[in-house]
UniProtKB/TrEMBL annotation, chain A:
<protein>
    <recommendedName>
        <fullName>Phosphate transport system permease protein</fullName>
    </recommendedName>
</protein>
<feature type="transmembrane region" description="Helical">
    <location>
        <begin position="154"/>
        <end position="180"/>
    </location>
</feature>
<comment type="similarity">
    <text>Belongs to the binding-protein-dependent transport system permease family. CysTW subfamily.</text>
</comment>
<feature type="transmembrane region" description="Helical">
    <location>
        <begin position="89"/>
        <end position="109"/>
    </location>
</feature>
<dbReference type="InterPro" id="IPR051124">
    <property type="entry name" value="Phosphate_Transport_Permease"/>
</dbReference>
<keyword id="KW-1003">Cell membrane</keyword>
<dbReference type="InterPro" id="IPR011864">
    <property type="entry name" value="Phosphate_PstC"/>
</dbReference>
<dbReference type="GO" id="GO:0005886">
    <property type="term" value="C:plasma membrane"/>
</dbReference>
<feature type="transmembrane region" description="Helical">
    <location>
        <begin position="201"/>
        <end position="225"/>
    </location>
</feature>
Automatic annotation (TrEMBL), chain B:
<comment type="similarity">
    <text>Belongs to the binding-protein-dependent transport system permease family. CysTW subfamily.</text>
</comment>
<feature type="transmembrane region" description="Helical">
    <location>
        <begin position="99"/>
        <end position="123"/>
    </location>
</feature>
<feature type="transmembrane region" description="Helical">
    <location>
        <begin position="66"/>
        <end position="87"/>
    </location>
</feature>
<keyword id="KW-0813">Transport</keyword>
<dbReference type="InterPro" id="IPR005672">
    <property type="entry name" value="Phosphate_PstA"/>
</dbReference>
<dbReference type="GO" id="GO:0035435">
    <property type="term" value="P:phosphate ion transmembrane transport"/>
</dbReference>
<feature type="transmembrane region" description="Helical">
    <location>
        <begin position="181"/>
        <end position="202"/>
    </location>
</feature>
<dbReference type="GO" id="GO:0005315">
    <property type="term" value="F:phosphate transmembrane transporter activity"/>
</dbReference>
<feature type="transmembrane region" description="Helical">
    <location>
        <begin position="129"/>
        <end position="149"/>
    </location>
</feature>
């Protein structure tokens, strides 16, 4: 229908129609070109570690020692990988229950108060820049941990606490949307059977919205995994696997942030950092894949 | 009775944890403002930073942040708007459209530091823009586009179908319909979303470390010729923004009052983001009321 409609127009209309088509198509092309060149350039630099400098990929992934400037340089990135995974997973473990409670509070317990005060408050948390989180972490969390626990206060625990506050808004907003979108009949049916609110939440609401809740958690982990500066400020940046949560360690992002400026382009030291960036990029794909899989599940359920 | 007790206990715990979040935010904002506000003065906001002595300000950084924000939005808004319009109006359900959706999704979850590295490689080195505001703005464009695309789609979706069809039925072309009927109706959503995106640009640092650079040349605020190397308006000069400055002062600051500078700069950053947030809310509501005649 739309096509025949177009054909009946005079020339100026057709010209105008083309302006719109061409303009929006160029914008879309820009988007496509930018993602493809992003992936291409990061991958080509990241892979040159293996193809040009002949570093064994397995050594990189499983090596425990990172000493790029030694006489016999060692590029074991396992400490960074462990650091990244442990901080972001721990952050999700802290943030997920809090977010679920906030969402239940806003949807089931006090919708008026929640929507009016709690939601804007949580949206504000999302807007605070990550360096500010890093600054507060550095001047509040780290000294606090130094007093309470053995060690210098920096480490996975401090990183996870800072990250958990940062990802709280993401998980909460997705959780809230899922709870609000739940068909009313489901809950009403449960209440009609005489179930209490908690029974309804625990037995009906939580299981039915579980895929969506998990989506939120995965997105939160993805965000925490890629966060660079806030983590770098509180994690201590020692390139080894820590024995406790309060010992200095490093993540993929913090290693890149700190070393990228100090290495010459195309040197092996520099290429290895690009390999770390490539790992970050591959993990992004994995997270997106998991999210897509979960979304498909929630549609079926 | 046992179920009732469980219900009460659970409700109490949920309310307690929800209030923990409010307390955390109140504490966070309170801490930043209380520690920072006392350090903010006209002199702090306008003077240049000091590397080793006390009393450095954040003048150039503040200017750079605002300038970078304007540059980024000049590039992002037309591209994001166009791509968003394409996705909501021209794209038909197909494999290709699904693919673009996947791209938008991937791009939106890309770590900003990876986008920064890409900028370093392609914009700074390959295209030879160097560490400059322009490189930074382009990197942030890549970083911000998915957000802008989603905002535009959302805004256009909020337009009632009848209104769009009425325009098409009058024989007005699709592009004209989008421009003169749909965009004006969708503008409250688009505008408030754009302001939120702008707030994100203002606070972004990781992508800028490797594109806009970590230093500012000595700026001459009397020279407004955009081609002069010391002019604040020159888009091809390196520029350290406020967020990058906070990071740098915290990790390698040598000035004796580094902690106060970081606190003051953080307060400025948070206040700006709050202003963005509140104005987005206010403007969205105001325009919605104006366009829909709902009180």
């Amino acid at each position: 229908m739309a096509k025949s409609h177009d054909r009946q127009q005079g020339t100026p209309h057709i010209a105008e129609e083309w302006v719109g088509r061409i303009y929006t198509t160029i914008c879309i092309l820009f988007l496509i070109v930018s993602i493809f060149s992003l992936v291409y350039f990061v991958a080509s630099k990241g892979l040159s570690t293996f193809f040009v400098n002949h570093v064994n990929p397995l050594d990189l992934l499983t090596g425990l020692k990172w000493s790029p400037d030694a006489d016999i340089p060692l590029f074991g990135a396992l400490p960074f990988i462990v650091g990244s995974f442990s901080t972001s997973l721990l952050a999700a473990i802290i943030a997920a229950p809090l977010s679920f409670c906030a969402a239940v509070f806003m949807v089931e317990i006090a919708p008026n108060f929640g929507r009016k005060y709690l939601q804007p408050v949580i949206e504000l948390l999302a807007g605070i820049p990550s360096v500010v989180y890093g600054f507060v972490g550095l001047s509040v969390i780290v000294p606090l941990f130094r007093d309470w626990f053995p060690g210098q206060g920096v480490g996975i625990a401090a990183g996870a606490v800072v990250l958990s506050v940062m990802i709280l808004p993401i998980i909460t907003s997705i959780s809230t949307d899922a709870l609000a979108a739940l068909p009313k009949g489901l809950k009403e049916g449960s209440y009609a059977l005489g179930a209490t609110r908690w029974q309804t939440i625990y037995r009906i609401v939580l299981p039915t919205t579980l895929p969506a809740q998990l989506t939120g958690i995965v997105l939160g982990i993805a965000r925490a995994f890629g966060e660079a500066l806030a983590v770098q400020m509180v994690i201590g940046n020692a390139p080894h696997i820590p024995r406790s949560l309060f010992e200095s360690t490093s993540t993929l992002t913090s290693a890149i942030t700190l070393s990228m400026g100090n290495t010459a382009m195309n040197s092996i030291q520099n290429n290895v950092l690009w390999s770390l960036a490539m790992i970050l990029m591959l993990m992004t794909f994995v997270f997106v894949f998991i999210v897509r899989w979960l979304e498909r599940r929630s549609k079926l359920g | 009775m046992k179920a009732k007790t469980a219900d009460k206990v659970a409700t109490t715990i949920i309310i307690m944890l929800a209030s923990v979040i409010v307390l955390v935010l109140a504490g966070l904002l309170g801490y930043i403002l209380v520690r920072g506000l006392s350090h903010i003065s006209f002199d702090f906001l306008t003077s240049a930073p000091q590397s080793f002595r006390k009393g450095g300000g954040i003048g150039p950084q503040l200017f750079n942040s605002i300038f970078l924000l304007v540059l980024t939005m000049i590039i992002t808004i037309p591209i994001g708007l166009g791509a968003g319009i394409y996705m909501s109006e021209y794209a038909k359900p197909s494999k290709f459209t699904n693919f673009i959706r996947l791209i938008v999704e991937v791009l939106s979850s890309f770590p900003s530091i990876v986008v920064g590295l890409f900028g370093l490689l392609v914009l700074v080195n390959l295209f030879g823009f160097g560490f400059s505001l322009f490189s930074g703005a382009l990197a942030l464009t890549v970083f911000n586009l998915p957000l802008m695309v989603r905002i535009t789609e959302q805004g256009l979706k909020s337009v009632p179908k009848e209104q769009k069809e009425a325009s098409l039925a009058l024989g007005i072309s699709k592009w004209k319909t989008i421009r003169s009927v749909m965009i004006p109706i969708g503008i409250p959503v688009i505008l408030s979303g754009t302001i939120l995106a702008a707030g994100r640009v203002f606070g972004e640092a990781a992508a800028l470390l490797f594109t806009a650079g970590m230093s500012s040349p000595r700026l001459d605020f009397t020279d407004w010729n955009p081609f002069s190397p010391f002019s604040p308006l020159n888009p091809f000069r390196p520029a350290e923004t406020l967020a990058v400055h906070i990071w740098k002062v915290n990790s390698e600051g040598l000035a004796p009052d580094a902690a106060q500078i970081a606190a003051g700069a953080s307060a400025v950053l948070v206040i700006t983001v709050l202003l963005f947030n509140l104005s987005a809310r206010w403007l969205g509501r105001y325009m919605y009321r104006k366009f829909t005649a709902i009180k």
